[in-house]
Structure formats: structure tokens, C-alpha cells
Amino acid sequence: MFNEKQLVLNRRLFIQGCTAAGVGACGAMSSLSAVAAAKVTMGFIYVGPRDDYGYNQAHFEGKSALAKLDWAKAVDEENVPETIEVQKTMESMINLDGAQVLFPTSFGYFDPHILAMAKRYPEITFLHCGGLWDAQKHPKNVGSYFGYIDEPVYVAGVVAGHMSKSKKLGFIAAMPIPQVLRNINSFALGARSADPSVTVTVVFTGGWSNPVKEAESANSLIDQGADVLTCHVDSPKVVVETAEKRGVFSCGYHTNASVLAPKGFLTGAEWNWSGVYTNYAQLIRDGKPIPNLIRGGLKEGVVKVSPYGSAVSPAAKEAADAVIKQFMEGNMVVYKGPIKDNTGKEVIAAGAQHAQQDIWLESMDWLAEGVVGTTK
Amino acid sequence: MQDVSFWTVIIAVLGGAIRVGTPFIFVSLGECLTEKSGRINLGLEGNLVMGAMVGYAVSYLSGSPWLGVLAAAGSGCVLGILHALLCQHKRVNDIAVGIALMLFASGLAFFYGKPFIQPSAPRLPSLEFGEWSSSPVVRAALDINALFFVGAALAPLLSWFLLRTRWGNAVRVVGESGDAALAMGIPINRVRLLSTMAGGAFAGVGGCYLSLYYPGSWSEGLSSGQGLMAVALVIFARWNPMYCLYASLLFGAAAALGPALQSVGINWGYYLLNAAPYILTLVIMIVTSDRRGTLSGMPGEFVK
Amino acid sequence: MTALRETWIISLAALALAFSLVAIFFATTGNSPWEVFYTLYRGAFGSWFSWQNTLVRAAPLMLTALCTVLPARVGLIVIGGEGAVVVGGLCSALVGITLQDQSPVLVITAMVLTGAITGGMWIAAVGALRYFRNVNETISSLLLNYIAIAILNFLVIGILKDPATLNNPSTHSIGEQNMIGQIGDTSIHWGLAYGIIVCVMLWILCRRSTFGFAADVVGGNIRAARLAGLPVAKVLLWCCFLGGAAAGIAGVLEVAAVHGRANSALNAGYGYAGILVAFLARQNPLAVIPYAILLGGIQASGGLLQRAHDLPDATVNVIQGIIFMVILSSEMFYGRFKWLQAKN
To answer: Most buried of the four, A101, A196, C86, C256, by CB within 10 Å?
Structure first.
């Protein structure tokens, strides 16, 4: 069984890994070093409301964990659009709050907004969630961090594959962008590892937060026979609740959604930003160099699997635990050939594999075999 | 196999039309009544959001979702009165006040709605008409909320009110021509105040349907512009309450069509499909009006 | 000058009343109104940095406000600024990408022209529908907003997508060298200058030209204008075109001065905010400038309000809503008080 203790231990490993240059997922180390100050001031920026029961709330909870540290001060702003407004918000945090480190947490903040501000304020550190820092192209005072959330999504897929009776799963997604496609594919690969006859039908809603469309998508998928639903939109609340109402299983995303579906909740993928943000704060306080690129999965404790719901069968638990164990040991590769896309084209040849750190995966534009849907 | 999914898509879209269309019924009937009296209230989007928040909050605090519906209607009333009182003065523009009210009401709803995002409030029950069927698809489609029937009954009622009652006649005269109303001794401001107030209350109920039934929770992203869309819908429906009902169902079906098609693997151009109701409304507007005439049913005050 | 004096006194009185109501709102939430007002002031106008923050936000609002102001002069209420921003931005980005390797001056000129023409045509279509088919312009322009946004999303996530933009689907870049830069060493891009220049130009057009006079006649009484032999259709369509062109330029600036490419960030609500600015400015292109700055200031201080007082983002909406409602309602007092107009 997967437990908390393991995670804590591994989180510690993660810090060590990151501070000792060039280990594993933690890439370039170079010159991001912040000035050691009496009180570390950090600024967080979210694209949606702090309490959306999803993506932004996960970051807000991470930020809130810093409040416990008496040597750190964290300020934040919600609903900041990906326009010049975010540039001004960053400047305002720097000039009026004295922020030394900024965490703009939406993907769209990176280019051009963070890059422009990093040029203007070379002494401030900008750490972006989701971006891909490149030593060739990007300023040295910029860094990026993200979690391999598709690892717990894969685990959820394994559970879903075991639990599904109709062998039809439903995935409600915002739009066909690489991060989302990767989650869909990992879910499908996980499910099909449990049972190769499983298919995953994807419905794109066209927006990150459109509750009515999400509910309608969930209902449509269930009408077509899907008996496990999951999603990648800003908040899993509507999808999980709709699934529960209709009496089918659901897997959460972003935050722990088990309370929303006491009967049908299986498991889910969650972020664990509090660990990541606390680590960053410590590095800054101690004046240690901050790695420009941090990526981590289950092993590093950046993401976690939600505790299994009561409906999960022992066989499914066993299979999922085995996969988690492999992830924790670092010898699980999700994208291992042969993998075909859903048009029948081979995208990863037999024998070839793309480990999590491979940035090839971060520009994914295909859907795996067994997924019903297109990327257009 | 193909045949089966075809029918389930049809049934799902019909069910979706009712599920997604119900808030449209309320907001469009509200806007219809308001516009019949000669005002456009763009602020109904704000009423909708406020109604959603108030309804959910009251349901959570009191334990009774129906009390939530009442409170939502009340909040819509208050906002409607505010719109009417501000707009009754000379030169105060109803469109601009509507947008300001939309900002104000959604701002207030978000401000006071924060503590109600996490908790789970009692929802409105649904009436299960599909018990006889063994098909879960049919059962789900026939799982209908009582508010739908209220809305569906409201449409002919409003129709009757406007066409057959003295008060309804007064509303139409005021909307047709302020001068004529003045000559007939109808208190223009009072008629508009009551129409806008009732319209606001309808929109509030539409909002609480979103939070208390479908999708059934309160969050800041709950409305995707249903309130604004209702303004277009009223035009689509030519200011006829019965047509408002049909058009609401059609708009609901249009919103349900995209997900239903994707769920059977047809997923082309969902962005354009999402915009289909707007395109359709625009086309209808263009086709059905001409240089001399105006849209039939359109209150004369709009084409001065 | 009497009208001017009346405008000043009523506007200031309305602002005072609005801020009193805002103060009451804060008092009910348990915050000290004075502290909150000080924060608002600090965030919007308290320092040179805050001023820059305010002005940068004001720039697009000036242009989108004109999209409502110009048609209003001929009596049309257009709320389609958002759509014109999106269309102007998207089309100008395509031109910018195509011309990428030409000289930057040429690229920018072509982009501004494209944005102005496409944005202008978008709103001119609204005017034409009104004039020739009697289609209500308020509703048609609202519908066109949604259609423009759908087209943008459809294209940007589909055929126009630059695969390198990964999770933030956008068109290809117009090229770093072609971007409009900042004014001096401030952080304000040249868009502010565009906004002010266009406002002033259109003000001159409205107030000091025969075209402006003709527009006012058409707006006053369309039948009288026809009887007077004015080219009503032409005047009406040009007013719509010019308004749309201004909003189109706002779209160009988003692309050329901020993002370098077109993406869904074009749909950031500038169009809707512009409608309010237009009404606050009482459809006067010159008055658009200070009101855009006021609105920019409120938005600029919104962030600080969140951080300093732990208030949610929605607070700014409430403040804006109150201020707008009061100022819009103050319209009722114009012409009511003899003493305001008594002298000369």
C-alpha cells in the first residue's frame, strides 16, 4: 500500500537531489542564486480564483504552507489574466512588496511576460510552473518547475482499467494541448496495461472552466456506456459529482476529490506543491543556488496518488500498488515502444523509449491507440 | 452498433436540451418581459450569478433548497429594481447601467460567495419520469427538475399575461411607445419597474438552477455567459414567450450537441459548434428583418 | 463654457458620492475605508511606478472606448469592441507574420492598417446591418463578439498554431525586431501614445469638422438629416468604421507591443471595459482619456488590494460597479440645476 511516510522520505531525497548538481530529473544548476535575506518574500500569481477546487487551489495550498514558516512571507494574487496585467502584477510585487522570488503559476505567463520581466529585473528570480527553461534561449534568473502528473494519472488509469465493466472510459479535457494530451495518453496506457480491450473516449470542452459543458460531457460519455470518468480541466468537481450522481466511477485530478463522491471515487492525481515551495524557500533563505529546471514525479514527491476509494477492488489495488512501487524505484517508463497513435501510425518504435525527463514528451501532439478522439 | 449510438446521441441531446436549456428559459422570459416594457437589461448576467450564489448559500445555511430558490428570486428582484430605478431618469442609458450592474452583482456574488465554494449544499431533487425504462440513457434523459416544469408553465402564462390581461397590455403599450402610454395615462415608470423587477427575479431563479441542480455547485466560473446569451435568445424568439421556451430548448440542445457528438468520436470544430447559437441568431436577425419593417414583435422603443 | 462647468461639478459630485458608497461597503466588510483608499491611491497613483502601471492598462481602454463613442455620435449603441479587438489583432498578426522579414517600420505600418481596416469593417458591418436591414446594433455587435472569439480559438488551436507554443496555443511570432517598444526607459509601451493620438484626432474630427457636425445631426434626428440632404448612410457607416478601427488598433497593440503573436489573451475584456469608459466620458473622445486612466488606476490597484488587505479579486468589480452606477446615474442631473449654468 502506498503511504504518506514514503512520500515524505522521498521528498527529502528530492531536495538532496536538487542541491547536488545534475542528478536525475533536476537539470541545469547554473547561476540562479538568490541573496540570503532575513525574511524571504515570495510572490504567487494564479490565473483563476484561489479556491477553484483545482489547479489554482493546489498552488494556493502550496503557498499557504509557507505561512507556517516565520522566516518567509508569501503574497499572492488571483484571477490575473495572461496579458500585460501579469507583467504589472509581477512588477508590483517586486516594487511594492519587495518580493525576491516570483511564482507565476500559469503556462501562458511564460512567453513573453516572464521573459520580459526577467530582462528588466535581473536580480529577481522568476520560477515558472510548467514552462521549459532552456539554457540556450532563456535568461539565467528564470527557472521552471513542474511535476510529472501523468504518473499518478497512469496509476489512475490502471485502477480504472481494472474497475471498468463496460471497458469504456471517459476523459473530459479542456483543449488538445501537449500537457493535456500527455495525461490522456498516460491514462489510456495505464488502463490498457490492465486490459488491452479498454478504450478511452475524450471530449474537449474548449475552455478550462465551463461547468455546464463539463457536466454535459460527463452525461454524454456515461450515455455512451463509459463507466469511469476522469478529467483535465481547472476543477474536477463537476465531473466527479456528475459521475457520482449517475452511479459510475470517477478519478480525480489536481486535488483530492474523494469527499465529492463517497461511493464511486476510485483514486486520482494530485499536486503536492507545499513540499516544492518549502524547498525553494529554504534554498533561498540559505542563499544556495536554485536549479533552473526542476521536474519530479511520484518518486520526488511533487505529485501524489489520491488514497483509494472504498469501491476499489483488491486486485486493482494490488496492480496499482505494483506500478507505484516501480515509479518510486525509478524504473517505470510510461512511454516505452511499441506505441501506436490512434490513426495506426507508430509513434514510438519497439525497443525505443522516452523516459519522463525526455522533453520530446512535452510537445506531444498525438493520441495513443485506444483513445477515441482527435487532436485537432 | 452505429445505430445504437445514433439513438443514444439523439436521446442525450434531447435530455441535454432540458438540462442545459432550463436556465435559459428563466433568463430569457425575464429578459423578454423587461424588453417588452421597452428596456434592455444586460445586467441579467449579474442577476444569474447572484442568484446562483444566494440560492446555494441559503440552501446550505437553511438546509432547504426551495428556500434557496426563493432567496435567489428575491436577490434578482432587488437587482432588477435597482436597474429600473436608475434607468427611469432621463439620459441614463439602460445598456450601460446593465453592464455596470453586471460587474457589481457578479463582484458581490464572488465576494460573499467565497465561503460557499467548498461546502456541499442540499440540491433540488429531480423527478424521475424514466422509471419505466430499462435503459439508463432514457432514464437519465427523463430525470427532470421541477424547475423545468415551472419554466415551461411560465412561458404560456407570460404569453397569456401579455396578450390577454389589462396589465400585460399596459406593458406592451409602454414598450411600443412611451408617448402613447403617456397619452393613455399609463404610469410608464411603474410599469417598467415592475417588469424589470419580475424579469430580474426570473433570472435569479435561472441562476440558482445552475448552482442547485445542474451542474449543481457554486463556483466563480459557473456561468459561461448564459445571462448575456439570453439577450440574444429573446431576439431569436421574437419577443414571444412561447418561442422563448422553444428557443431555450434549442440553445440547450445546441450546447449539448458538441459533447454528445464527441462522445461517439465525432469531434470536429467544437469551437465553431459552441458559437453556432450566436451565428444562428445573427442569421435569423438578418433574414427576418428588412429595411422598412422591423422584427415583428419587437418593441417599438428599440427602433426610434 | 457653461456646459463644461456643469460637467465638472456633476462629475466630481458623482465621484464623491461613489467613493462614499465604496467606503460604506468596506466598512461593512470590517476594513477601514481610509486604509483601503490609501492602498487604492498607492497602487494607482502613489508613485511613478504606479502611474506607469495605471497608464499601461489605460492604453487599450482608450481605443476600445472609441468603438462605442463614435457610433454613439450617430445614435447607435455598439458593444462590439471585444470582437473588433480580436479580429484586428488576429488579422494584423497574420500580416506581421507574412511580412516578418521586411523593415520593422513597414511591418508595423502594415499591421496597424490591417488591424484598423479589419476592425473597422467588423463594426461597419454592424452599422450596415442596422441601416440597411434594421437589425438592432447592440445585439448584433454582442453576437459578433462571440463569433470573433470562436473564430480566434478555432484558428489558433488549429491551422494557425505554432507548435512551439506548446500549452499556450498561439500563432507564429511576428518577430522580436518588429515589436513596438517602450517609451524611453519607462515600462509603458508606445500603445499609450497611439491611444491618446487617436482620441485627440477623433475629438477634432467630431468637434471641428463638417463630418462631426453631420454626425451630430444624424444622431439627433435621422429624418431631419435626410431632409437636409446629408449622406446619412455614409456618415453612419464611417462612424462605425472609425470606432471599429480604433478597437482594431487596440488589438494590433496587444499583438505588436505585448504578446508578439495572437492567442486567446486577445479576448481579455478590454472591449467590455471600453463600453463603460465611453459612457462615463459621455461619448466625448477627449474625456475618454481621463476616464480610461481612472479605470486603469482602479485595476492597477486591485492587485495591491488583494495583497495588502487580503481581499478577494472580486473587490475591484464591486468598486467599479458602484462607481459606474453612480456616475451613469448622474446623467439625470444634467440640465436640471439652473445655478450651474447661471453665469455667462
So the answer is: C86
